[in-house]
């Protein structure tokens, strides 16, 4: 039976109280390291809470009241964390926005949430907001993190205005926040229509902190390297757990090409990441085997199997034979040490989530001394629900339920979740809330199974959300419907699950394209037109147009035009003319693969 109790940590009961609690317990300990002019600088918990409280008082001076929504439109950086905790301390609600969001996407999140202020990373992000400002009647303040023209306040000025503020007022604000108040509204794409705002309470957030503590998943001595977007609930939980446990966060320098050098330089012990980074490193490692002869390749594979076996025996306290130990030490010099060195050489564990990852990749890194533990959750579960641990690890599964979380499998195979981490509601969307929460259980939309030891395996999704290799959730219907409004296009099927970027298969509308071709003296045959440069350019122009409405990660990068339309007769469309995605993916698998060459 699942343990559904959580032992209170005896620290903060809300996120509003968490920084002050952390400062009291860990004051002189390093809370953060970040790059400033190419130099790594440190901030203690005492320093951090001082900055947080001054920013919070600055927000209060700006007129931000308890319950107001305040957006953050920025890449992951120290100031994101300080701003987020300051918003909570002021009694307001954090509304994260992906820095890659387009202006219309920013407009939707800020407008739907009714945000009164937004903290933007720089002038470029602020300009996106300004371009839609006339349609955001509630938005009164734009604050930038980086120094900018004096068109709006900066975070430093905001903090300065709070330096001499009334700390009694701030204490009152913090005390006025209850565990069941809203902590954050995180917008996540649904299957149709605009993104929905997932309402997470302070109780949700603190429950995850307590789960991590009870599981002893990380220790106070850990150093976390954080490059995941803090607009994603997954990264947000790492930030929360750090202040609960007292670990140090190393914030990446915001240059993707420098992640590996920064890992080597900062030598973290804990790395939350998405599959893409592990897939890239695995691919790089596998390239060296391309030049191997059969004997060398066999030795490589044997070293991987040996690494897994020896490390698992050590975890279980089992004996390792002298022969195995000798072979292991040899492989340590030739393989294991080189791979672990790419992560700085001190990784105790890494966690992967937000998208599936191949078990062979996990086994490879485990063999090399970098345990990559797969977990599973969604924004609606405050990012977490299950996780593998070093002493309870089963490759190919997403682990067992966290303390206090219950799992069940519905009759149709859907995974159901119940626990203190499950969200309260969708913001101003009671119908969607009622569909997701039934009798206290969250209907996740994922299909799965639970084995006799409680390990969960995810086997698919009931709906058509695409999760890229980078862990970003995409709604294909939106851009597909945009493109289908083009007169020359009949059907569009976006593809990109577990892939680095989205691609699409396009079919031509014969009633429109054939007359267009006739006027230009082109062949009146769909098969020939699908390969014609003029037609390809025509479709490319329409895709470019549609792409401008979406964030970079959601844009179609490549496409192929099929030589005929999709039909009911070929089993590609339902009687109501909906595309059968699984059929398309299987039937055109080779063509889709070619778009990633």
Describe this structure in words.
- It contains 21 helices and 26 strands.
- With 597 residues, it is of the alpha/beta class.
- The strands form 7 sheets. The chain has a 5-stranded mixed beta sheet, sandwiched between helices.
- Helices cover 39% and strands 20% of the residues.
- Could you say which overall geometry the principal axes of the C-alpha atoms support? globular
Specify the structural class. alpha/beta
Label the CATH architecture of the domain at 475-594.
Answer: 2-Layer Sandwich
Beta-strand proportion: 15-25%
Helix content: 25-40%
The CATH superfamily title of the domain at 475-594? ANL, C-terminal domain
Helical segment count: 21
Top CATH class of the domain at 475-594:
Alpha Beta
Cα gyration radius (Å): 25 Å
In brief:
The protein is of the alpha/beta class. Helix content is 39%, strand content 20%. It has a domain at 475-594: GMP Synthetase, Chain A, domain 3 (2-Layer Sandwich), CATH 3.30.300.30.
List strands and helices in order, with pairings.
Elements: H1 18-26, E1 30-36, E2 39-44, H2 45-62, E3 69-73, H3 78-89, E4 93-97, H4 103-113, E5 117-120, H5 123-130, E6 141-144, H6 155-162, H7 167-175, E7 182-188, E8 196-201, H8 202-215, E9 223-226, H9 233-245, E10 248-251, H10 259-266, E11 270-273, H11 275-287, H12 294-316, H13 322-341, E12 349-352, H14 359-367, E13 372-376, E14 386-387, E15 400-401, E16 406-409, E17 414-418, E18 425-426, H15 430-436, E19 437-438, E20 441-450, E21 456-461, E22 466-467, E23 473-474, H16 476-484, E24 489-495, E25 503-508, H17 510-519, H18 526-529, H19 533-547, E26 558-561, H20 581-587, H21 589-594
Parallel strand pairs: 1-10, 3-4, 3-5, 5-6, 9-10, 11-12, 12-13, 25-26
Antiparallel strand pairs: 1-2, 7-8, 8-18, 13-14, 14-15, 16-17, 17-20, 19-20, 20-21, 22-23, 24-25
């Amino acid at each position: 039976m699942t343990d559904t109790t959580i032992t209170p940590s005896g620290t903060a009961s809300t996120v509003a109280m968490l920084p002050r609690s952390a400062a009291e317990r860990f004051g002189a300990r390093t809370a953060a390291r970040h790059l400033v002019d190419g130099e790594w600088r440190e901030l203690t918990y005492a320093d951090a809470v001082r900055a947080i409280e001054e920013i919070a008082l600055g927000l209060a001076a700006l007129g931000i009241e308890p319950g107001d929504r305040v957006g953050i439109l920025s890449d992951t950086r120290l100031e994101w964390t300080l701003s987020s905790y300051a918003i909570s301390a002021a009694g307001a609600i954090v509304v994260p926005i992906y820095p890659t969001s387009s202006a219309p996407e920013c407009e939707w999140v800020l407008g739907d949430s009714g945000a009164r202020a937004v903290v933007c990373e720089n002038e470029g992000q602020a300009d996106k907001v300004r371009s839609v400002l006339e349609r955001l009647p509630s938005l009164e303040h734009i604050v930038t993190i980086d120094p900018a023209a004096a068109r709006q306040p900066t975070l430093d000025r905001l903090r300065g205005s709070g330096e001499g503020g009334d700390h009694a007022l701030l204490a009152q604000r913090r005390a006025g926040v209850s565990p069941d108040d809203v902590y954050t509204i995180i917008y996540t794409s649904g299957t149709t229509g605009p993104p929905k705002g997932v309402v997470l309470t302070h109780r949700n957030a603190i429950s995850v902190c307590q789960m991590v503590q009870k599981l002893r998943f990380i220790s106070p001595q850990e150093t976390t390297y954080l490059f995941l977007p803090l607009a994603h609930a997954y990264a947000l939980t790492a930030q929360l757990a750090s202040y609960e446990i007292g670990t140090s966060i190393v914030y990446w320098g915001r240059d993707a090409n420098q992640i590996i050098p920064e890992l080597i330089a900062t030598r973290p012990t804990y790395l939350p990441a998405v599959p893409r980074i592990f897939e890239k490193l695995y691919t790089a490692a596998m390239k060296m085997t391309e030049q191997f002869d059969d004997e060398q390749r066999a030795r490589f594979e044997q070293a991987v199997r040996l690494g897994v076996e020896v490390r698992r025996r050590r975890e279980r306290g089992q004996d390792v034979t002298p022969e195995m130990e000798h072979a292991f030490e040899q492989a340590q010099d030739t393989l294991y040490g080189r791979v672990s060195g790419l992560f700085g050489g001190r990784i105790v564990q890494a966690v992967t989530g937000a998208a599936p990852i191949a078990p062979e990749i996990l086994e490879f890194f485990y063999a090399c001394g970098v345990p990559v533990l797969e977990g599973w959750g969604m924004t609606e579960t405050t990012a977490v629900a299950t996780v593998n641990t070093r002493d309870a690890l089963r490759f190919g599964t997403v682990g067992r339920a966290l303390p206090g979380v219950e799992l069940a499998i519905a009759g149709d195979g859907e995974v159901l979740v119940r626990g203190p981490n499950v969200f309260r509601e969708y913001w101003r969307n009671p119908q969607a809330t009622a569909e997701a929460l039934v009798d206290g259980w969250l209907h996740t939309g994922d299909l799965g199974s639970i084995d006799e030891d409680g390990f969960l395996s995810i086997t698919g999704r009931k709906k058509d959300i695409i999760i890229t290799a980078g862990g970003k959730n995409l709604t294909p219907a939106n851009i597909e419907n945009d493109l289908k409004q083009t007169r020359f296009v009949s059907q569009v099927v976006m593809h990109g699950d577990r892939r680095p970027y989205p691609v699409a298969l396009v079919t031509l509308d014969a009633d429109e394209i054939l007359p267009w071709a006739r006027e230009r003296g082109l062949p009146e045959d769909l098969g020939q037109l699908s390969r014609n440069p003029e037609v390809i350019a025509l479709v490319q122009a329409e895709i470019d147009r549609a792409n401008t409405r979406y964030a970079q990660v959601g844009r179609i990068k490549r496409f192929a035009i099929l030589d005929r339309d999709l039909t009911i007769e070929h089993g590609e469309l339902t009687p109501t003319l909906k595309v059968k995605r699984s059929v398309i993916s299987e039937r055109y698998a080779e063509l889709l693969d070619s778009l990633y060459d």
